Amino acid sequence: MMGNSMAVEIRNLCKSFKQNEVLKDLDLSVPKGKIFALLGQNGAGKTTMVKILSTLLKFDSGHINVLSHELPKQSDSVRSKISMTGQYVALDEDLTGEQNLILIARLSGYNSIQAKGRTKELLEMFDLSDAGKKTVKTYSGGMHRRLDIAAGIIKTPELLFLDEPTTGLDPRSRSVVWDFVRGLAHNGTTIFLTTQYLEEADRLADLIAVIEGGKIVAKGTPTELKSLVGRKTVSIRFKDTAERESAKKLVSKSFPNKSVTEHESDLFSIEISDISQANSILNGLADASIEPVEYSISQASLDEVFLTFTGGKTNE
Amino acid sequence: MNNTKSPTAISSTKTFLWRSMLKIKSAPGQMIFDSIVAIVSMLLFAFLFGGAINGSPKEYVQFLLPGMLFMTVLPMTVYAGAALSKDISTGVYDRFRTIGFWQPSPVVGVLVGDIVKYAIAVISVTLTGVAIGFRPDGGIVGLLFGVLLAIFYAFSLSWIFAAWGVVAKKPDSVAQNSMLILYTSIFCSNIFTDAATMPDWIQTVIKFNPTTHIATATRLLMQGAYSSWDIVLALVICIGLIVVFAPVTFVLYRRKDR
User: Fold this and answer.
1) pTM for this one?
2) What's the complex ipTM?
3) Is residue B215 part of a domain?
């Protein structure tokens, strides 16, 4: 379906670099107005995909629509509506921060007064007003990245690509970037970001797709993804090992299909399918006059989701 | 979302020229260094070889100065290629490409901007030459035409390195690998002495070296001998280089697929 509510639609996308197949028959749709995160390890094909969608790279086969324009035929129309901030800082190191922004503003069609106004606004927004007059060469990593993103949104795009926007950033810069992404999405811009940080995808994105080996292996909201893997777990702590043992026996009897895992000397955890099961476990213990010291119910983390879908390999 | 239109080709090219000027202003070191090297070489060549080649430095400088312009300006023609290569190897180029302006303007901006560097170096050499006794028959007008031709040739030649810079993997490789070609082109010519005394085979090389013809034309201009086919030939060479290499550079730049 090629509806207008989609910012990005990809069918059967293939891309190889010489012998190396990077994207293999990939399908993906990203609705408008959402923050979408493409989550994957190094070398999973994230950057290749962003470069293709932002018209920087040709693809071998497949169908791509970006904001209802077909690639590669309507690349120019796509370019006028999108913006892209790559992984490698796209700034002129010999110019000042202010000059960099004015340069991009002028190239985007602002006249010289508009360009100066917009530059001032963006420097303030990204906490760079003081650094504006300094040469970019002298900037820290976080300042570089913030200026880079500012340059990417001089003209508010309909769709913004951010390739690993917070990789290598200090916490303060990271939170500036996150706030800005949320603000932009709130005003209607679709955000397509890539990340290798689960926390970032979890906290920022409305929708996540996990990419592995050139294919999308899972997609959904953060909650949906978490519920795909493992159910909820209830962990209960007792006053000593003896009490835990008797509690464990009791629970094993009433839930013979579930495995109970012991932790430390006074704690066990058990997987449950819904909250009511946690209640019946606790009620059963109360009936046997066993009083837990504390208990908690937790959901599978996105880490587990990621490890499950990417075959348990870790980042090199 | 924004009611701005894409800039015209002229306006985006002007913006890139502005960028080139800012870069010269923010880091004038290279240009000052180039000019000092030019002046020192001028003095060295005139006073070391002048007596041996033409009897006296003052005699030799009459022949040397037009040639010395090329010794100065030709090594500078790689800068534009290196600058383009740098834009591509950092992400700046990717950003430019996602903005919808006339795509050759970054290339034009860099190459035209470098004319300022050529002019400053060439003028430094010329003033030094005049200071040590260069007095061309063509007077100030002839001198000016000669200087303009030297700058124009440097601009034309820079298109070769621009095309090279666009396909090069690293900015440094452009500067390094081009030196052999440039220095061959500088020394295997009639820049420093008349080729008549050289062996036949080297005379053949010199005849096919475009720098030889441009230097000849520059000498003629400075002597005020404007009506010569050599000058036409020089202009044809310059324009030919641009006509061939500018479109090649634009196409390579646009098709660049990293």
Assistant:
1) 0.77
2) 0.85
3) yes
